[in-house]
Specification:
- With about 200 residues, this protein is an all-alpha fold.
- Helices cover about 65% and strands about 0% of the residues.
- The protein is built from six helices and no strands.
- Helix 1 (about 1-25) crosses helix 6.
- The chain is globular.
- The mean pLDDT is about 90.
């Protein structure tokens, strides 16, 4: 049970950053960055590279939000020894602002980069941006939507905390289930267009 608690404690900044970035993207702040990463580029199949939903505002916003939440979480962990002692990231590195800035940037970058292959695949299957599709393909993308960014974030944790492959997969699955329920909550709050 302590291991599962540590898993959540270690990724809590990313959970907060993802929700914060979703709210940030809906504001008018930095709207000049609300342009698609692929700038409308179509490949030889006449389909977009990533689509309209992957914007520079969301990309940069996630990195900035992750740095911000990781610094704040570091302060909270320092104030509450239980959190610091059960955070995988502070078991081998000291909880310092410089480390948390670096860690937050890595979390944010891993999060957004690992979402891009998913968007690329969806465009190949003619799935509308922000949707998952139907049938077996739709179910595949529902799962992929929950774990794509987590694969990157758990990889970041693995850079600082040794884990075997089984542990890595379990961490991604646990995060994916959590991500799914957070998405439902954000949908009910009006911050997401879809449940999944």
């Amino acid at each position: 049970m302590n291991t599962v608690i540590s898993m959540y404690i270690s990724l809590m900044p990313v959970i907060f950053a993802g929700s914060l970035n979703m709210a940030f993207v809906k504001t008018k702040i930095w709207n000049r960055l609300y342009i698609p990463i692929d700038k409308g580029l179509c490949l030889n199949d006449s389909k977009r590279l990533f689509g309209d939903n992957k914007t520079w505002k969301g990309f940069i916003g996630m990195i900035v939000c992750s740095i911000f939440t990781t610094i704040l979480w570091g302060f909270l962990c320092h104030a509450v020894p239980y959190l610091e002692n059960h955070n995988f990231l502070y078991m081998s590195h000291e909880n310092q602002i410089a480390f948390n800035i670096w860690l937050g940037a890595l979390f944010g970058l891993a999060y957004v980069i690992c979402e891009l292959p998913n968007s690329f695949l969806k465009r190949r299957f003619d799935i509308v941006p922000g949707k998952t599709g139907r049938g077996l393909i739709g179910k595949f993308f529902i799962v992929l939507d929950q774990i794509d960014s987590l694969i990157g974030c758990v990889f970041v944790v693995s850079l600082f905390y040794h884990m075997n492959f089984v542990f890595f997969i379990f961490y991604v699955i646990l995060g994916g289930v959590t991500h799914y329920f957070i998405n439902i909550l954000l949908y009910k709050m009006g911050l997401r267009k879809n449940r999944n």
